[in-house]
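Team,

Forwarding the record for the chain on the shared tracking sheet. I've put the sequence and predicted structure together so nobody has to dig through attachments.
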Amino acid sequence: MKTGEGIRMSEFSLNTTKIPAQEMDWGSLKSLFDGEAIDATGGFNLGYIVYNKPHYSGVHDDHEIIYIIEGRGSALIGNQEVEFGDNFLLVIPAGTEHSIAQITAGPVKAILAHFT
């Protein structure tokens, strides 16, 4: 698990408060969990993301799920524009171009999962 020096995962839990967030020009991303930490056979990553402005994510080889905790805006998933708000779930299939196109109330705070 790429959590930084001095951060240890117990058998059943991980205190994420000491994991640093990566600051980006569009917001921040904190990597909470990487499946390699438990020798998972499939790929899995979990993160906490904050969008302060629109962000073009591109295309990934894995599936992505974004659970919107709070904030409102729209996402472009493939050629479909999807409006979202608090407690929405965005599902992005592998190989699908996507972006957070617009933020109308924010920042947008979300849990992000990538998996194969």
